[in-house]
Structure formats: structure tokens, C-alpha cells
Design a protein that fits this description.
This protein is mostly helical. The chain is 73% helix and 0% strand. It has two helices and no strands. The longest helix has 38 residues. The protein is rod-shaped, with a radius of gyration of 19 Å. It starts with 14 loop residues before the first helix and ends with a helix. The relative contact order is 0.12.
Amino acid sequence: MQPRSHRRPEKIHDFNFKIRQVLNLLFMVIAIVGCLMYTGIIGGEDNEMKGAIVVIIAVLIKMGECMIRLLKKNTDNDEYQEEDQD
């Protein structure tokens, strides 16, 4: 019996992977715009609150991406455990 590896090969072209990549890109762009708004580089000096709101929206998008990743790992672990029981 071969020892099990802690890392299982993942499917690179998985649908969840593509969604996560889009959400990561969206997070980065929105976070940069929010930081620029907060510091006053975009939109003038009065946009601190708007910039903070934009950054919070970016964080919520990142949290959604993390949830997709965690749920995917959880379902993978369930499938992996079912294979062990057979």
C-alpha cells in the first residue's frame, strides 16, 4: 500500500477555479480603486467615506471567493472519505 499524499491533484480547469480567478481579479481592481479614492488620488479630497465603502465591498467579494474555496475543499474531503470507506 502506497502512502497517501497530503496533496491531491486538483483540476485546473474546474468551473470553481475560473469563478475564483474572476473574483480575485475583481477584488484586486476594486480594492485598488477604493484605496485611491480613500487617499484622494481619485475623486478629490472628499471621498474618504466612499473609498472606505468601496474597500469594504472588495473585502466582501474576497470573502465570497474564500467561501467558494472552503466549500470546495469540504466537498472534496467528503468524497475522499467516501472512497476510503469502499
